[in-house]
Amino acid sequence: MRKIVLGLFLSLLAGLMSCVSVPKNDAVISGIAWWDNNGEEVNAHASCVVEDNGVFYLFGEAHTDDNNEYTGINCYSSTDLVNWTFENKVLGVQPDGLLGPGRVGERAKVMKCPSTGEYVMFMHTDDMKYMDPHVGYAVCDRIDGDYKFMGELKYKDSYIRRWDLSVFQDQDGTGYLLTHEGNIYRLAEDYRSVDSILVEELVPGGEAPVMLKDKGRYYWIFSEKTSWERNNNYYLSATSLAGPWERKGLLCPEGKTTWNSQSAFALPVVSGVDTMYVYMGDRWSYPKQGSAATYVWQPLTIGDGEISIPEYQSAWRLDKESATWEAVESNIKRGVASSVFSVGEWELTDKGFRSKEAGARLSATIKGRQVALYGISEPHSGYAKVTIRDNKGVEVLSTVVDFYSQYRTEGLKLLSPVLPKGKYQITVEVLGTWAESYTKSGKHFGSDDSYVYITDFGSIK
Ligand code: GLA
Questions:
Q1: Is the pLDDT of residue 15 over 90?
Q2: 134, 246, 153, 252: which is closest to 194 by C-alpha?
Q3: Are residues 346 and 307 in the same domain?
Q4: Are residues 214 and 268 both part of a single domain?
Q5: Which residues contact 445 (CB under 8 A, 6 or more apart)?
Q6: Hey, what long-range contacts does 43-47 have (CB within 8 A, 24 or more apart)?
Q7: Which of 330, 381, 392, 451 could join 403 in a cystine, given CB atoms 3.0 to 4.6 angstroms apart?
Q8: Position 129 confidence tier, pLDDT thresholds 50, 70, 90
Q9: Given a cut of 50, is residue 277 above it in pLDDT?
Q10: What is the structure's pLDDT at 24?
Q11: Which residue owns the Cα nearest ligand 1 atom 8?
Q12: What gap in Å lies between CA 337 and CA 314, rounded to an integer?
């Protein structure tokens, strides 16, 4: 009996201690992999977030490290934009047709149709060479249920030959489809077809459209057409959707390539007190999008007819009740690595270790519950395979980190999921490959070398 009581007491104590001491990430940290409730990488690219009954639902492309073939649209939920629960692959590969095997399915965007109560998802579908663009749609009566693919979204019986798309719902409930090159299509009341064209070909060369409305003014963001490469995204503004639209300029300081991202969505967070907008972008990493592409989510600054992201927030937290945000001090302890050893050729600089030799490895032992890696990104940087093993040598994490940036930038490159408190060995291996892509006309974008530059390791206890 005493044994049972003692056992119960100890397990209660252990439960209590784990509640107290497990660090819960409470900051949005851009540009690193995010881990879901299962410890899997959050895989929802070119995403959108829909708030439904006080919960944020994230939808996006499920990518692999193989190629660009459509594998489905994932859905996650969260109440703080930081901790994500995997809900469902809400739309998978169809047996045939526009989203059948060997097709592309991108930029899924979801809206709840006020007149039918139905959730409607729109997406760009294409062939693998991006020569057969269509707009498809799918419907569901639950936000995170299994969506039914309905095929082509039509305008007067004809199909819409467009690729990059987004949606916008105005305050009166009217839904709009936006596409590259600056087109605005008004949707029918049931959102299942287009009923008119409001704006046509206004922004030649503009991709990745995103729209938001604040205090009666519309803002329309675009990226340049540079394949998976980042560029300086810009925006237009108007007081009526039909225009006139005024070109306003860049969203972020020139040369920062939209803080290394491409626009995907703007999430309004509305409280009784205020409204704030979260810019959601993709830091693509072709061809290893499944493990190495990340998200860049930043608070948008809005003032006097202008929007911007003047400074990069490396970690910030949303206060949903007041629709405000605050910058968060990092709780990662740096300089904690012991028994660091290397294999292969590494150059020692005043900042850290740098190598481009495929197979070169750097390992460090770290104690804690979360393991962190810091590095420098440069125009000639490539991929690193990062492996974390526990004290018994069992692999607990294996992923790929992309070090590429068009400009030199230093920072956090990886923060592991929360692991049992212990001693871990992290190994960073130079893969000898890098992120790069080509436009349809054959223009090369991305890196051209395989440098991996490590500056520090860190941990959260
Ligand atoms: C652009 C688009 C993406 C994708 C890639 C393919 O970046 O915005 O959605 O289609 O091109 O190269």
A1: no
A2: 153
A3: no
A4: yes
A5: 226, 227, 228, 229, 436, 437, 438, 439
A6: 43/74, 43/290, 44/73, 44/74, 44/75, 44/76, 45/264, 45/282, 45/284, 45/289, 45/293, 45/295, 46/106, 46/107, 46/108, 46/208, 46/264, 46/282, 47/108, 47/264, 47/265, 47/280, 47/282, 47/295
A7: 381
A8: very high
A9: yes
A10: 64
A11: 208
A12: 22
Domain co-membership, 385 together with 241: no
Q: Is the CB of 229 under 6 A from ligand 1?
A: no
Task: Decide which of 270, 300, 327 is a domain's last residue.
Answer: 327
Residue located nearest, by CA, to atom 10 of ligand 1: 164
Q: Is residue 357 part of a domain?
A: yes
What's the rounded mean pLDDT across residues 42-55?
98
**Given 305, 327, 349, which residue is the final one in a domain?**
327
**For ligand 1, atom 6: residue with the closest CA:** 227
Does residue 18 register a pLDDT over 90? no
Task: Indicate whether 320 and 358 sit together in one domain.
Answer: no
Determine if ligand 1 sits within 6 Å of the CB of residue 214. Answer: no
Range of the domain at 456: 333-460
Question: Which of ligand 1's atoms lies nearest the C-alpha of 286?
Answer: 12
Do 253 and 395 belong together in one domain? no
Q: Residue 214 is part of a domain; what is its CATH number?
A: 2.115.10.20
Same domain, 307 and 431: no
In this structure, the answer to whether residues 370 and 395 fall within a common structural domain is: yes
**Domain tally for the chain?**
2
Query: Does residue 227 line the site of ligand 1, with CB under 6 A?
Result: yes
User: Residue 89 domain-assigned?
Assistant: yes
Cα-to-centroid distance, 377 and ligand 1 (Å): 22
User: 429: domain CATH number?
Assistant: 2.60.120.260
Which tens digits make up the pLDDT trace of 404-413? 999 999 999 9
Q: Which atom of ligand 1 is nearest to the CA of 229?
A: 7
Q: Is residue 81 part of a domain?
A: yes
153 in a domain, yes or no?
Answer: yes
Q: How far is the CA of 394 from the centre of ligand 1 (A)?
A: 38
Q: What is the mean pLDDT of the chain?
A: 94
pTM of the complete model: 0.94
